[in-house]
Every structure is written in C-alpha cells, then in structure tokens.
Write a structure and sequence with these properties.
Blueprint (H helix, E strand, L loop, with lengths): L18 E4 L7 H14 L3 E4 L3 E3 L9 E7 L6 H13 L3 E6 L3 E3 L6 H9 L24 E6 L3 H6 L4 E5 L4 E6 L2 E4 L5 H13 L6 H15 L13 H18 L4 H13 L5 H12 L3 E5 L3 H4 L4 E2 L2 E6 L5 H16 L5 E4 L8 H17 L7 H7 L23 E4 L17 E2 L2 H9 L7 H12 L5 H15 L2 H15 L10 H13 L15 H17 L7 H9 L12 H24 L26 H14 L4 E2 L10 H8 L5 H14 L5 E3 L2 E3 L2 H14 L12 H22 L10 H14 L7 H30 L3 E5 L20 H15 L8 H10 L5 H16 L1 H6 L1 E4 L2 E2 L6 E7 L3 E8 L2 H4 L10 H4 L3 E6 L4 E2 L1 E2 L7 E4 L4 E5 H4 L6 E6 L2
Parallel strand pairs: 1-2, 1-20, 2-5, 5-14, 7-11, 14-15, 15-16, 17-20
Antiparallel strand pairs: 3-4, 6-13, 8-9, 9-10, 12-13, 18-19, 21-23, 22-25, 23-24, 24-30, 25-29, 26-28, 27-30, 28-29
Helix pairs in contact: 1-2, 5-6, 5-8, 6-7, 11-12, 11-13, 12-13, 15-24, 16-17, 16-18, 16-21, 17-18, 17-21, 18-19, 19-20, 23-25, 23-28, 25-26, 26-27, 28-31, 29-31
Length: about 1000
C-alpha cells in the first residue's frame, strides 16, 4: 500500500481499550474521519472501528457489497487519503479495527471483474471456483450455467420489450448484452455469430478495405476455434484465454478501421431486433441461450437459483473462502494493511456463512500475526496462514495481550448470534464476538421480571389472540423456506437425495419426502448453525442436531418418519463413523453445506420476520435476543458476566450497532414499560379508542391491525424526542421529522412481518392506512387528545429511560471486555433500525460539548466542583450531555488503569437492604487499584418515593453494598462527582458502603481506590 506517511508506532495495544464505530460512505470519507480523530482521542477512544471501506458497489451506504477486496473504495478515498487518516490515528496513539467481509461479494451490474469473467467463461473461468456455484443443478437446462436473476420482469417480456441490447466495447474489443446497468458478457466462442453479420454489413460498403475483410474473416475463424473445451479438460486449456485476449486485441484494431464503428453499430442494431417482433428477436434469444448463464426474472431466484447468496439477496454472491487460493486472493490488501501497521484488529462479518469457520479463523489468525510480527519479511502472510490452517492456532485469540508484542494474538472478533444455551467455540482463534450477547445480557437487567405475566395478558387482550413466540418463530422460518430461500432448500434436498441412492437401505426415501423432512429440521433448529468440520461433530453439535431432529419428528405428519433417523446420522456425521456404503467425505461435505443454510433461515425467519410479529415488549426483539426470555436478575447477570470474563476477557461489548433494531437508549427506555404493565395496558387501550376514527377499512377490516398499532405505540415510546418534554408546545418541524422517521420504520416493519404486506408483494391500501394513522396521530395542527395523553404518560418513562441509559453505559464501560461506542451514541441514541441508525453525526456539536464539559469539570470560570457539574447535567438531561459526561469520564478511567480493565478480576458485590433488588454492583480489581461500579435498575418503581432521580437517602434508605473485607473500609472516590464516600467496617470483618452515599447526588457511581 502506498500513499505516503509514516507507519504506525509499536506502542498501540494489541487489545483495544475502547473502540468507536464509524460508518464510512461517500458522505463520510477518510478525510472526514481524519478530522474527528482529535475529538475521539480526547473522548478516550483507543481504536477506530471502521465499517467496510474496501471497494464496494458505487453508491453503497454500508460497504458490505464489496466488488474488489484488493482496492479501497474510491468514494471513500484514495491511498493518500487513507494514509493521512491512519497517520492521524498514529499521531494520537490510536489504532484501527476494520470490519472485513469474507463471505460474499457484490455481483450483477458491470463492476465485479471476477463475476463478469465467470459469466464470460463459465466453468473455464479461473474464478468459477471462487463463487459457490452449483454447476450441475437438478434442472438439466441449467447444467454448466449460472442462473442470473437480475431482470425486473419475466425474461420473455424483457426480451420482447427490447430491453436486452447487444453492445460493443471498442476499447476492450468485447461484446456484451446490456440490461440497464447490468452487463452480461458474450463468451468469445460466440463472437462469430456477431462478426459474420458485421462482415456482411461491411461488405456492402463501397469503400471497403480488403485487408479489413481478411482480418474479420481471420477473427471469425480464430474465435470459432475457441469452442473446443469441456470441464474435464479445464486445466489443459489455460492457453485459450490468452488466445482469446489476443483475438480481442486484434478486434480492437479492426474496429478502428475507417467506417467500422458505424458498421458495427448498424449490424448490432439489426441483431438486437425490434421490440414486439418475435421473429427479429429470435437471434438474440438464441445467442443468450448459448451463454454460460441464463437470464431470469429476479423472483425466480427464490426457487431456482444455483449460487449461494447472502441470505436472499440476489446481488450478493457467496464466495468459497475455504479454498486457499480464494483466501489469498481476498486477503491480500488487508494483510498488507496489517503488515504496514495501519490495521490492528478485525471484525469478521457473518462468520456463520462460512463453510468452515474454524479453519478460516485459524488461517486468518496465523496470517494476520505473521503480517504484523514480520512487516518487512518477504513471505506472503496469506501463504503463512494457509500453512497453519490445520495447525496450532486454536484458542490463541482469547487470551490477554498488550503492547502489540510479537507472538500476541491478533485481535479478531466475529459477528455471531448465540442462543441462550450456546457458547462461542473456545477453539476458535478469536477474542470473542462483536457483542450481541453482551447487549442482550445488559439490557435485560433493566426489564422487570414481575411484569412479564401482566404484559403478556395486556398484549394478548389488545391483539385478540393467544400469542407464543416459539410458534411464531417456527412458522416464520417455514415461510421463509417456502418463499425466500426455497431454492437453497431444493439444492440441499437434491444432494441429500443423491446420497440416499448409495444404499439399498435408504433408496426409497423420496425427493419430496427429503425436502419436507429437511424443512422441518431447519425450522426446529435451536441455534443459527452447528460447526461440524472435517473432524466430525462436537458435543454441542450432537446436542443441537438431536434437539432439532426430535422436534421435527414430532411435528411431521409423514407416516414414515425413518427419514429423520437418516438425517440425524448424516447431520451429526455418524453416518461416516463406520465403514458402509456412504462416501465419508460426501457425508461431511453435506453436513457442512447444511450448516450454511440454517443461519440464513434463522436470520430471515426470526430476526427479520418473527421479531416484527411478536410485539409484547419490542425492546426484547433485538439482534441476538430471544423475546421469549424476559428479564435477567442481578445475580444471573453476574453469573453470566463472570463466565464471559473467564472465557472471553477481550470480547467486544456493544449496546448499539448498524444492525440493531433500535437505538441503545430507545431500547432501555422501552424496557421501563415492564415496570408498569397494568398502566401500559390501560393506556394503549385508551389510545386505541381515541384513534379508532383514524383507521381505514381495508379488506373488510380496520387497518392497521392491532399488532401493528401496538408496535406503533411502543415505537413512539422509544423514539419520542427528549426536547418534546419541555414546557413549550411541540415544534411542528421537529414533529414532521419524527413523523417521517416513524412512517418509514412502520412500513419496513410491516413488510418484514409479511402478514399484511411484504417487500416482494407490497399492499398499497394497507400501507396507506398505516401511514394515515401515523400521520394523524403525530399532528399538532389541531387539537390532538392522543398526543396530550401520550406526553403526560411519557415523561416519567423518559426519566426512567435516562437512568437506564446511564446505567447501561456505565456497565459497558467497566465490565470485562472491549466497549464499543457506536457513532454518535455518546449522546442520546433514540434511533430506529437502518437506515435511521446510519444518519449523519454532528461531530462538531459533540466536540464543542466535550470541550465545554472538560472546562467545567476542571473548575471553569466559576470554580465549579465536579458534583455541581454532575448534578447540573441532570437538570438539562434532554440535551444528552449527561451521557457524554459519563462516557468521557469512564473512558478517562480506562486510560488511567488499562491493565485493570483488560485483565482485572470481576467481583459481584452483595447488596442488602430494602432496595437491594434495585441495585447492580460489581468490582474490578488488580494489584494496582480497585474500581466499584454501582448502578440502579428498575427506576420507574423508585419514582414512587417522590424523587425525580434515584439519589439520596429518601430513595435508598438503608440499602448497602458489600465492598470486600475491612481493608476496603475508608474513603472511595467517585469519578463523576469527586465525592469520597466512606465504606464502613462491620463486626464480621466485612466492609459496606451505603447506597445513599454512593448515589447521593448522581444516579450512577464508579468509585476508585489505589491499592498498596
């Protein structure tokens, strides 16, 4: 990588202290990031956590549609801009973590060179094995072809409309068929079909040149001779591509002959045919039918596609990174950036999409360490990784490490959704996950377990039916397999069916029966996927396969259920455990291919369908969450955190990401509804009555449905702007902005739910009715009883949400692991699902706030004391500076005691007294210092004491926190207020701290004390 500037110094820690996620796109480029580096450094961030910035599709807002892993995205910046950005990080002692996408690439259009080569050359392409393509699918007409479902209508209609146009690239000497901005190359063996009419047209010229005619004739013969090829002779025909390249170069020269450009245009115009004239379009159809691809309507993909996609997105094709050559080709640039000291950690996107995650992570860990530790070595780090793929990298990523020393694990985290009973595989060479497990754990701490039954009753009463999340999830996964991911299931069933023909014991299992059985097993799967590999299945794999098969067997209506015995033996690889008729390698391959299917079904069926159908308490409907699992007690939180600290001390801790369903502060605000389930139930019934006249009759029923209306009210609770709680009337402009955001979210929600509308079949009448309700509910142009009642209800909920938000931030920034701040979330994050959570961030405003805050905390012009500063921020809670204050002070503390927060012990602290259930407290200890975290929980119930904030003796009474033995007695210092509450010694030799002292004037406390 060139571009100037010094490489990073060696002082950057190999394990980040805290990361800050930046979303790069054409509106936020390397130059913009460079400008915010000083602010983030002052905030206390150690590493930028960058969204993908390798070359993606033009206009990409997220960067996950990569088209070239070995180039920077030009819309974000060139090599010089990147170097300037990374040099700015280096000057501030900061590192960089990159979000890397190894599972898929953007295809279609005219920008992915590998994909276009596959379309041009089919199985002969050197990139044919890069993509996960089934070249011998069940449909005979697709043998040797890849289905390309990018047409906006049926192929025949598109063809007859004349939208498929043959064109010539004179600079490259190539022919392609174009459909809008999609390019479909013509294979060189078919160039004679085109050149003969060109020659004929040229022959009619009065000033034709004989040498040009001879050249055209030679090209026709040359291209014709390229057609002798078969897949069996793949490796023997590498020279054919070189010959084709020479012929294209000659065609470029011929095309420059006088008059030839016009001749080619005339000939192609005739070949393209006339719209609506079937006879004139026959030639085009025959040309396309001869290619290595088959053009199709985009809806066909759900049932007949023969390449693995990212979920159901046709224009994201899976790549086979398990192949060493593909690994090398896709990791060349990122390993160079590591070698140059410009990238210091990786976030691996969608690890469950990989064929063999463990093998990939071992290879990546070895290659990354080699690149970092030997920056000037001649050996290719990717090759080093390939050599270690089956070696000794197991578990190396989950240890401690700092300073970036040689031999320390390279910090890698994986995007992984874990079920409640599931544990991240400790043999993986990673530091942990991207934090969805922590997110679920921490916010459930603010859900009141006593509210579950009443909330369930209120919800079922409102929607008028009994609701079970487990059944909704099961049915949603079945629906996804029937419509969105049906083709992948068909491919699996075909391959499993072929294996059954290996033995007379299983040959009577039918293809239809196999598909039905697989569908039931996948719908019943309790985790995203298992991790069977070349060594077979581990104990957790057996557990989850047995569970899924047992439940599928019970649900199946088939008379002969012995097929489930076969599936259980295959998916656990027991079928290959002893000599028999089945090919062992094929058994393991099919078990591993099956694993790549269950994840997308779970993601689309649960996260993107069931989560929008089950609206009991929508804050629980979060990525990585299980809505059927309600609250978490402080004791359970401590137990789970202790286990995480033991297994994955350097995992990422997240409370908001680009994929979360709602902002971190909106989520914990909605959590507060669990504390007042009866009042909430009364309010939503009242609001429904007030808004009944605002509904529309659609298909003989009032619209929107009760479920969608219930979702709307909860959504409004979560995102209601803090500035709307002032004494003034609501600003109509601000309300219009809220209305637009909520309207867009509600349309997305109903389409994801797929009950009243959907992405593939939008129901305009229903969506109009929904938008009408939202618009009229959020209207202040006239008297609005609903809004008046909602505002009155919301204020105490908003205050409880503030306390929950501060407590959540404190836990994230002091618990074991690497906390991440999603861009902009140092202030209130009341966003909704993407694209709402990717809106531009006003960093200038945040920097000004931080500068003023730092000046005030240091004394300011009025000699302010820290406790006065902290208390004053509560009075202006609506502007979010109080959250910025908490984040800033704790990032400062992490910088003060980096080793304590990376490797110090985690100690749950015992809480006693009348408010014990409302406190979560723990300590972090090493040989240098002790840090105590004290936060409230379930604050809405504490408001019954009459206090606006959970501070002081009237709230906490005699509640006390055990802080250790009597040597912990004495003063502790609060990093927020500067106060020094005393822990007192008990007769039993323990020391306790009064909650009223720790939380005297600020609702959260982090107390420190030097040791020794």
């Amino acid at each position: 990588m060139t571009g100037g500037g010094a490489s990073h110094p060696m002082g950057i820690r190999s394990v980040p202290l805290a990361t800050y996620r930046l979303q790069f796109n054409r509106d936020f480029a390397f130059g913009d990031a460079e400008r915010v580096v000083p602010y983030l450094a002052r905030l206390g961030i150690s590493h930028i956590y960058a969204s993908p910035y390798l070359k993606a599709r033009a206009g990409s807002t997220h960067g996950y549609d990569i088209i070239d892993h070995n180039a920077l995205n030009p819309e974000i910046g060139d090599a010089d801009a990147f170097a300037a950005f990374s040099d700015a990080l280096a000057r501030h002692g900061m590192g960089q973590v990159l979000d890397f996408v190894p599972n898929h690439m953007g295809v279609g259009h005219a920008d992915n060179a590998w994909w276009l080569d596959v379309l041009e050359w089919g199985e002969e392409s050197p990139y044919a094995e890069y993509f996960d393509i089934d070249w011998q699918p069940a449909k005979p007409t697709l043998h040797g072809k890849v289905l390309v479902p990018f047409l906006g209508d049926h192929y025949g209609r598109v063809l007859e409309a004349g939208e498929l146009r043959l064109g010539f690239d004179a600079a490259a000497g190539t022919f392609s068929v174009w459909y809008h901005d999609h390019r479909f190359p013509i294979t060189p063996r078919d160039y004679p079909r085109i050149l003969r009419p060109v020659l004929s047209e040229y022959g009619r010229l009065s000033e034709r040149d004989d040498e040009t005619i001879i050249a055209l004739q030679d090209l026709i013969v040359g291209f014709r001779d390229l057609s002798d090829w078969s897949p069996a002779l793949h490796r023997l025909h590498t020279g054919r591509r070189a010959e084709a390249a020479e012929l294209k170069q000659l065609l470029r020269v011929v095309a420059q002959a006088p008059g030839m450009a016009e001749v080619i245009d005339i000939a192609l115009d005739k070949l393209n045919g006339r719209p609506g004239d079937g006879d004139s379009l026959q030639w085009m159809h025959e040309l396309l039918d001869a290619q290595h691809y088959r053009l199709a309507y985009w809806r066909v993909a759900a049932e007949e596609i023969n390449y693995r996609r990212f979920f159901q997105i046709n224009q994201l094709a899976g790549i086979r990174v398990e192949v060493p050559e593909v690994f090398e080709a896709t990791h060349r640039l990122i390993l160079q950036l590591i070698r140059d000291g410009r990238v210091h950690g990786l976030r691996i996107d969608h690890v469950d999409g990989l064929f063999d995650p463990r093998q990939y992570l071992e290879r990546l860990q070895a290659a990354a360490r080699a690149a970092r530790d030997h920056p000037s070595g001649a050996e290719d780090a990717a090759e080093s990784g390939n050599g270690a793929a089956n070696g000794s990298a197991h578990g190396t990523g989950n240890g401690n490490g700092n300073g970036g020393g040689i031999g320390a694990p390279f910090w890698i985290v994986v995007e992984k959704i874990l079920a409640a009973h599931e544990r991240l595989r400790e043999e993986w060479a990673v530091a942990g996950t991207t934090g969805y497990d922590f997110l679920t754990r921490v916010h459930r701490l603010f859900v009141d377990p006593d509210g579950e039954a009443a909330l369930q009753r209120s919800y079922e009463r409102f929607v008028g039916r009994t609701v079970s999340f487990e059944e909704i999830a099961y049915e949603s996964k079945r629906q996804v397999m029937d419509f969105e991911l049906a083709s992948e299931l068909r491919v699996l069933a075909n391959e499993f069916d072929r294996l059954t023909e290996s033995s007379w014991a299983t040959r009577d299992y039918t293809l239809v029966g196999m598909r039905q059985a697989l569908r039931e097993v996948v719908a019943s799967f309790p985790v995203y996927r298992t991790y069977v590999d070349g060594t077979g299945a581990a104990a957790p794999d057996h557990r989850d396969v047995d569970w899924a098969v047992a439940h599928a067997r019970r649900r199946s209506l088939r008379a002969d259920k012995s097929v489930f015995d076969f599936l259980q033996a295959l998916l656990s690889t027991n079928l290959a455990a002893s000599p028999g008729p089945y090919n062992r390698r094929e058994v393991r391959r099919l078990a591993m291919k099956f694993q790549q299917y269950t994840g997308p079904v779970a993601a689309k069926g649960v996260e993107d369908t069931a989560f929008y159908r089950f609206n009991r308490l929508i804050s629980l409907n979060e990525v990585g969450g299980e809505p059927a699992r309600f609250a978490l007690t402080a004791a359970s939180f401590h137990k789970a955190t202790q286990e995480a600290a033991r297994r994955w001390p350097n995992t990422m801790l997240a409370t908001a990401t680009h994929d979360t369903k709602r902002g971190e502060d909106a989520r914990v605000r909605i959590d507060a509804l669990s504390e007042i389930p009866l009042e909430w139930g009364r309010r939503v019934r009242r609001w429904a009555t007030l808004n009944q006249r605002r509904k529309t009759i659609v298909n003989d029923a009032p619209a929107p449905s009760p479920d969608d209306e219930y979702l709307f009210y909860q959504t409004l609770v979560g995102v209601w702007p803090t500035e709307f709680h002032g004494p003034d009337d609501i600003d109509p402009i601000a309300l219009a902005d809220l209305r637009e955001r909520v309207s867009a979210y509600m349309i997305k929600a109903v389409r994801e739910a797929k009950t009243q509308s959907s992405w593939i079949n939008p129901q305009q009448d229903y969506e109009d009715a929904l938008l009408s309700l939202v618009g009229r509910c959020l209207d202040v142009s006239r008297a609005n009883p609903f809004l008046a009642d909602f505002r009155e209800f919301h204020r105490p909920v908003a205050l409880a949400g503030v306390v929950n938000s501060l407590a959540q931030a404190v836990i994230k920034l002091t618990a074991p692991g690497v906390p991440d701040v999603y861009q902009g979330c140092e202030l209130w994050d009341l966003s909704l699902v993407d694209p709402d959570n990717r809106r531009a961030v006003d960093f200038d405003r945040r920097e000004a706030m931080l500068n003023r805050l730092a000046a005030d905390f240091a004394g300011g012009s009025g000699n302010l004391t820290p406790d006065v500063v902290a208390s004053g921020l509560l009075d202006r809670w609506h502007d979010g500076v109080v959250k910025l204050f908490v984040v800033w002070r704790l990032l400062w503390l992490r910088g003060l005691y980096p080793d304590l927060f990376e490797g110090g012990s985690y100690q749950p602290l015992d809480v006693t007294g009348p408010r014990a259930d409302h406190v979560c407290a723990f300590g972090r200890v090493d040989e240098t210092a002790s840090v105590i975290t004290v936060v409230p929980r379930l604050p809405l119930r504490l408001q019954a004491t009459g206090a606006q904030w959970p501070c002081g003796p009237e709230v906490w009474q005699d509640t006390a926190i055990g802080v250790g033995t009597d040597d912990a007695a004495g003063p502790w210092k609060c990093v927020f207020t500067g106060r020094t509450p005393d822990a007192y010694a008990e007769a039993d030799g323990s020391a306790r701290l009064a909650a009223s002292e720790a939380l005297a004037c600020f609702p959260v406390a982090v107390l420190t004390r030097q040791r020794g």
